[in-house]
Prior knowledge:
Blueprint: H1 6-10, H2 14-25, H3 28-44, H4 55-76, H5 95-113, H6 117-128, H7 133-140, H8 144-166
Helix pairs in contact: 2-3, 2-4, 3-4, 4-7, 5-8, 6-8, 7-8
Amino acid sequence: MKNVSFRNDVLPLKNVLYRLALRITLDSAEAEDIVQETMIKVWNKRDAWSEIDSIEAFSLAICRNLALDYIKRASSQNESLEAQSYDKADSSSNPYEETSKNDRVNLVKKLVEALPEKQRSCMQLRDFEGKTYKEIASVLGISEDQVKVNIFRARQTIKQRFHQLDNYGL
């Protein structure tokens, strides 16, 4: 269809690919490896680039599949995937508020991680990466309507579980 350049069209995707891999694997070193492997796979398919509608969607799909393969390998080896500690840019003056805020953020992260894979992927691509429904459908190989349903269900599930857990004991 169009002339695709590795330097101009694929390399700029490395940060988006890294964020996607990191959200799925929760391991920065593994996310870097997945991005590198994604770039290699995309490069090896360079003869078919003219037949690909969206090189970005193609790259994201490869990255997602590699990250999911990592998760499957890790779970089969009974490795625990623990979330990394993230920088705390906002330091509240009240330690109680800061702790409460961190607990809520961690709770939401755990709720997102507990979602079914399709819902989690749809939600991450839409809410964290800002992808359109059409782009998400292309990456995941599902219809736009399925993307919308998965995002709606993911948001509803997180909202319900958050309120249940947040109000527990009150």
